[in-house]
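Appendix C: a fully annotated inverse folding record. The material below is reproduced so that readers can follow the format used throughout the book. The structure is listed first as tokens, followed by the designed sequence.
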């Protein structure tokens, strides 16, 4: 019986570089789409948060006959569980309060406090 050495084969440096080049090419194609999807999902959450808080403001006004004094009062009176965060700024204290048009006190509407524009070209503050 002849004893010999078995050769252990591995990848050469060239093979590894080719694989890394293929992976890098695929990432350059996929990464922009990924970030666009992340931005689109943040905008969808912003639209939903605005709709939810606006509906809670209207319900508060219908029940109490006055506009809520603050956004926190909506949470205190259980119209919302908590003041939602602005997904663009990732904070709950950046909402811009719109006062009632008749000179009354309170919260009539809210807008996003985020700077910049959405994917549709409109500023976040106009949503």
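Designed amino acids, in order:
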């Amino acid at each position: 019986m002849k004893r010999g050495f078995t050769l252990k084969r591995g990848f050469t440096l060239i093979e590894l570089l080719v694989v890394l080049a293929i992976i890098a090419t695929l990432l350059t194609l996929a990464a922009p789409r990924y970030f666009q999807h992340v931005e689109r999902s943040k905008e969808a959450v912003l639209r939903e948060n605005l709709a939810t808080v606006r509906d809670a403001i209207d319900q508060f006004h219908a029940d109490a006959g006055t506009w809520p004094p603050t956004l926190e009062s909506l949470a205190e009176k259980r119209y919302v569980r908590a003041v939602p965060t602005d997904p663009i700024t990732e904070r709950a204290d950046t909402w811009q309060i719109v006062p009632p048009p008749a000179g009354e006190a309170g919260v009539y509407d809210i807008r996003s406090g985020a700077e910049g524009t959405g994917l549709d070209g409109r500023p976040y503050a106009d949503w």
